[in-house]
Amino acid sequence: MRLAHDLPAAWNAPTTDARTKQRLTHILVEEVVIDLDDAANEAVVVVHWVGGRHTELRVPRVKTGRYPADRRPGPVEVVRKLGGRWPDRELAVTMNRMRCKSADGESWTTVRVRELRERLGVAAFDPAEAGETISADAAASRLGIRISSVHRLIREGILPATQLMPSAPWKVPAEALETEAVKAGVQAVAARRPKRRVDSQGETTLRLPGL
User: Largest Cα–Cα distance of the chain, in whole Å?
Assistant: First the structure.
């Protein structure tokens, strides 16, 4: 019991790093069960503690897509605008992110997108005709920063990019990565990173209910 009462002090001590918190979690938690409450748009998390007790938490689910239900684009519209500009696999991911359902209500796959694109007479993606543009993910990899930081640079107008439809992939000119403005933006991103990254991750991702 004394050890249990000392747990909050040990968990919140500034010298307790992420690895120690992970070890404590393995000792204390037997399992975590997650269920979905669609009506409330929440994830119901039940923590089963060693010893038989359990704690229920409700976490709001992040809504995907930017389109209200009454204004989501139809699959034909999306394929006509984006088809041939991106590989069919990327287009399938985009259409699912838009919650753009097929006629039978199923999610989009590469095969489904290809079949619809061919019925509409839209040419397939040709890398040779894509020009010197890359995706936001590729830009993040080349710049050595996270994709969220790339999106921030785009929003701030530092990194030029085009997006044909909301939630569609960004097209970034490859040459823009070498501009002084982008280099300064990347340096600013690096300057904002916590110096003790492991400790920061421990604070943001490793929390136990009640502590």
Answer: 73
